Amino acid sequence: MQTKDIDENIAWAKINADVLRSMENPRMGYWIAVVCCLAMVSCAVVAEIYQYQTGLGPANLTWSQMWGLYIATFVFWIGMSHSGTLLSAILHIIHADWRKPIYRFAEAMTTFSLMTAGLFPIIHLGRVWNMYWVLPYVSDRGIWPNFRSPLSWDAFAITTYLTSSAMFLFIGMIPDLAICRDNARGWRQKLYTVLSLGWQGDDRQWRNFRRIYLLMACFLIPLAVSVHSIVSADFAMSIMPGWHVTTFPPYFVAGALYSGCAAIITLFIILRYFFRFEEYMTIPILEKTCKLTFAIAMVWTYLNLIEFAATWYGHDMVAKELLYWKFTGPYAPYFWMMLFLGSVMPFTLAVEKLRRHLPTMFVVSLFLNLGMWLERWMIVGPTLSQNYEPFAWSIVWPSMVQWAIVFGSFGWFGLLFLVFVKVFPSVSMYEVKEMVFHRRTAHRPDLAVSLHRRAEDPQPGSTPSTKGV
Amino acid sequence: MSLKNVLENWSNYRKGAEEGGHHTYEHMWGMAIDLNKCTGCNACSVACYAENNLATVGKDRMMKHQGMHWLRMERYWDEPDLGGDDNEFQVRGGSVLPMMCQQCNSATCEPVCPVAATYHTPDGLNAQVYNRCIGSRYCSNNCPYRLRYFNFYSYYEESWPAPLHMQLNPDLSVRDKGVMEKCTFCVQRIRTAKDTAQREERVVKDGDVITACAQTCPTQAIIFGDLLDKTSKVSKVWESQQVVLGKAKQSKENKELRGYRVLEGLNTDPKVLYLDRVREA
Amino acid sequence: MKRYYVMGLFSNFEEAFATIAEIRNHAVPGVSVDDVTLKSPIEHPEIEEVLGDRGSPIPKFTLFGAIFGMCFGFLFLASAQATFLVQPQGGKAVIPLPSNIVLTYELLILFGVLSTVIGFLISARLFTRRHPLYSEKVSLDQIGILLELDEKNVNPIKELFGKHKVLEIREEVSQ
């Protein structure tokens, strides 16, 4: 049974070769995946064009239920973006070096799920063409957005988070892009020469690199927490029963980390399988991720129970009635399913045998994410169906237009991710090297002599080769 | 310069409604609806459709809750106090509640609009600026009364086929898709009355403005007027019912008084007073 | 005056660090540790012990960006609110601190991050041409020690490199 996170005696040339191979010209399967994603996206595009021209009526939104799947899915994607920050920033600060082989794709996931999430508030607008009015720009009419609205906080928070996480992703990739530049030909070489910004591994560059990485990590942790707290403020700041809940910010952050970690497990297994990254994305690392997910799942369960208990114990009759109704009403199947998937399903992560079994983990992680998606829907849907005004009580199920756009968003995310893995290294080469270097020096410092030399290099003690005289 | 403005007026700008804010109200339009008089005939709703260019959406969309009835007649058949399961009471009819935008003074819809399309006017009205609305629909989601309506479709072509477009009220616009709208207390009539009063160099009197619903009500159940004018009819009703603005819980001396405001306990401070219907048990 | 550039590539990182330590201890008269540039495939926090603490101005950029973001953010929001008095208030003050604190916090981070990145681009001397002696092996698995020298020091340095089992030596002369 494999217990070591990584084989520290792996040759560095092999690390480069393995990762660079994953970026080589794609095979048939890749193009099939691209076509599938494009098909999904085009479903959404067709639905959006229809909705744009007709109005929001065909989406089955009504005056009693003004938000539907769009906002639920928006929260879902925002949530998914949080785990990349968890892996790259929090684990970086606490020096958990097992994050190193898997943080790159998690961070890319952060950026891409934010790019997906950002589409939803735009899609759900009645007048999409005026969306820029939410931004604070100087106009001659002296009109500003309303800074009191949680929606304009969203605009600020998402812009900041997208900018920062994209920067973080890019900066962390610069040394790897330099490796790509040194090994690529043709258009790729031109691209990487520009993107690597003239990186040459100087001590000055590395020194500043270490500083900026730490500083960005310090910025990103409170930022990620604030972003999902602000998203939760969309609900918590309102007056509606089931939304006006004090525990929402931590509940949302926990849910975000939860769904993100589950998504990391999914993508971990996919990348490991298709790119044959068995030596980097090892079972022990997966186990650590699973344990982390399990811990977060339990936090999420606890916060759920807190919310139920606080409502049940409180004197807000409307909220209480809504809570009973969630358990018994038409939404009950979905509500129970969410509780099952979110709170019971993660116990599979606690069993070592299941945790080490990749197909099981793949299915479980997908189910966990389904549970988290249902959680967001169970926040948005029931409250709008039943709240203060009995006359407005109604059950409206989302129409095909909504489903198509939600469906397409997964294709959009997949498409961005597919492009990413072929253009950028999805395993951080230099950080895997650091990981094995530090682990090796703890055990066998003498190995470096043999591992870092190739056949054409002279033996120790013989005359060094000279060039460029 | 704006920075100078901030520093000079800092203490003023930091005052909330409790300390007087920095808003001064010219008028405070309010309403009183006597449910004893209301027969549930829906004439008010029809008048509202005619006055405010409300789109007729058709039966299917109406059933789907996509209607545009700014003033809706809510029917309740199963109130437990009235013996909800009892067939006899059902035969005697349910209870009705005409609901229009309550023009809350501490409106929950206002602070959540991301683009400031809904705001409070010096007339105490909760105004909706159609041109500014981007249709995020947050205001409606945060309205505990659910009295905001959204243009889910473009209605201007199908809703008023020729020659019906001739009956559109020229005093206000027809809204296009993607815009939130709601009862305005017939703001176009208020505007006209204020202009007339200004032209005649006098103040707006009680009775100068009457909303379409109040004008149409056959039993005169709806009374409309300025709550700041202590002599107006509506002020007198509010006073007699011992209901005052700005309180989440009214302290009534006489518990028999019928006046109440809907969901007052949420501290939205609505400006429509309902007089409860008295029925024999 | 002619300048000589010499770069030695090492597979054993310990030996490379020992080379720098010897240069620091004036093994070759006239060559100081400040002339040394280390090129490495990975980051070595421990190298500062031999190379000396060369410092980094990035935290200053960060501090400036964060403070600027905070001040600018709050004043920007407050002055926008103060010029836009019809802004819906729902009974709240014109300049409400709770929501402004949330937005100021976001702007603090945004400007802090942007300024940190700018600081990095400047202080890491990115956007410069790669050194002519740059070797692709540096991005793979070997450490390069690059020195800028006078002619008389070239051979002693090569000898020093040889003592520490250098694999390859590259040279360049500039006019």
Oligomer classification: heterotrimer
Biggest β-sheet description of chain C? 4 strands, antiparallel
Number of helices in the DSSP assignment of chain C:
5
Question: What is the element string of chain A, with H for helices and E for strands?
Answer: HHHHHHHHHHHHHHHHHHE
**Going across the major beta sheet of chain C, what is the strand order?**
2-3-1-4
Could you tell me the number of beta strands of chain C? 4
How much of the sequence of chain C is in beta strands? 5-15%
Q: What is the tally of beta strands of chain A?
A: 1
Give helix and strand order of chain C, one letter per element, not per position: EHEHHHEHE
Helix count of chain A equals 18
Given helix and strand content, the structural type of chain A is mainly alpha
Q: For the record, give the distance between the C-alpha atoms at the N and C termini of chain C, rounded to a whole number.
A: 6 Å
Integer count of domains of chain C: 2
Number of structural units classed as domains of chain A: 1
CATH architecture of the largest domain in chain C: 2-Layer Sandwich
Distance between the termini of chain A: 53 Å
| Percent in strands of chain A | under 5%
CATH homology group of chain A: Formate dehydrogenase/DMSO reductase domain
Explain the layout of strands and helices.
The complex is a heterotrimer of chains A (469), B (281) and C (175).
Chain A: H1 12-22, H2 28-54, H3 69-80, H4 82-93, H5 103-117, H6 119-123, H7 150-183, H8 186-195, H9 203-236, H10 248-274, H11 283-313, H12 317-328, H13 332-344, H14 352-355, H15 358-385, H16 400-423, H17 429-443, H18 447-451, E1 465-467
Helix pairs in contact in A: 2-16, 3-5, 3-10, 3-15, 4-5, 4-9, 4-10, 5-7, 5-16, 7-8, 7-9, 9-10, 10-11, 10-15, 12-13, 13-15
Chain B: H1 2-8, H2 10-13, E1 29-34, H3 43-51, H4 59-63, E2 72-76, H5 87-91, E3 95-99, H6 109-112, E4 118-120, E5 126-128, H7 138-141, E6 149-150, E7 180-181, H8 187-199, H9 212-216, E8 222-226, H10 233-240, E9 259-260, E10 272-275
Parallel strand pairs in B: 1-10
Antiparallel strand pairs in B: 1-8, 2-3, 4-5, 6-7, 9-10
Chain C: E1 3-10, H1 13-24, E2 36-39, H2 48-51, H3 58-83, H4 97-123, E3 143-149, H5 151-163, E4 168-174
Antiparallel strand pairs in C: 1-3, 1-4, 2-3
Helix pairs in contact in C: 3-4
